[in-house]
Amino acid sequence: MAVCKHESDPMSSATRPFAGFEWMLALRYLRTRRREGFVSVIAGFSFIGIMLGVATLIIVLSVMNGFRSELLNKIVGINGHIFVAPIDSPLTDYDEVAMRIAELPGVRRAVPLVEGQAFASSSEEGGGVLVRGVRPDDLPRIDAITDNIRQGSIDNFGEQEGVLIGQRLAEQLGLRAGDTLTLISPRGATTAFGTAPRIKGYPVEAIFEVGMTEFDNIFVYMPLEEAQTYFNRAGDVSVIEVFLDDADRVFQARQAISAAVERPVLLTDWTQRNRTFFAALEVERNVMFIILTLIVLVAALNIVSGLIMLVKDKSHDIAILRTMGATRGAIMRVFLITGASIGIVGTIAGLILGLVFTYNIEAVQNFFSWVLGQDLWDPTVRFLSDIPAEIDPSEVIAVLVMAFVLSLLATLYPSWRAARLDPVQALRYG
Prior knowledge:
InterPro entries: ABC3_permease_C, Lipoprotein-release_system, LolCE_TM, MacB_PCD. By secondary structure, the chain is α+β, with helices and mostly antiparallel strands.
């Protein structure tokens, strides 16, 4: 025992936290040995579980963020942020009202619109559409349209009775730029026998693709004056759409707009029109986070079971270390390092896997579509043409911290149990 207490004995420095021999023992316990093969299998599954859990959390949260961002950009990019509709009197002075609104701080532009439902048909097919009349000067400023022209051109928009239609609508009706689109409205000219439907053909000047199926399938744009004539509007508009510099400042902008229009109007914004949709996305995102966190929790519990079995298997070694002078704290730190290493390495591997998968999500989708021989992403069902993904660094850090904490907590009980082991009993019955 005198040798054990000698200053040159390595065990005399064992009380120093996380000494070199503690790391050496911990790493040795992580190596695979034939006699401890089952313990190594559990450690391997724990590593895989944490890696897949962290990677899945990063991928799913990134896709959910991408969905929300893309849908928000598509919806407010083509629809605007605030909608000004008349109540008592029609908006015949829409040019002046739109100009006053556009001069307000934080307002990017104000676009007067005539909206009406119609039936669009061609020689092959037909379907309901939403016709939008817009001033020729305003159309080039709607980036969601002008930046996504697939066929034709908008250079002559307003000079003739041409229209713009979405890509999905063009495919459904079998139309290309230059073909004729027939629009049928039930509210046409008033005759002695009642209201006759209005039927008129328009050449397709251009075809756009916003990337959101709901928009590409129903929107038809035509010059404002032509829309007023087609829908029997007496020189007024249905609504003025207001685009803001910051979509989140709708509440502050509403008060300024209400004062600028100088008349009773009905103000609505994008948060009211899409409240249910974005609330459902937020609920789904939170539920997915909770469910996928259980994967990491299960993997952490595997660390607990693996370490308990390792402690039982190494009880004889623990007893010898204790008799050589190793403190309970040193024994606890050895198994703490052993279990935490599995969690930390698994978390880092999951981070790398999740980031690589997210940045190459389109290539992964195309690969599985090629392997299975079918399209795994139907844009007619999922609103968007492509799988969106947007990595939020703060969420990634939160996932990593959560995985680290669970991994460390999983090692506390087995490490404490190893430190409390009685060396006499372990040597007698080990």
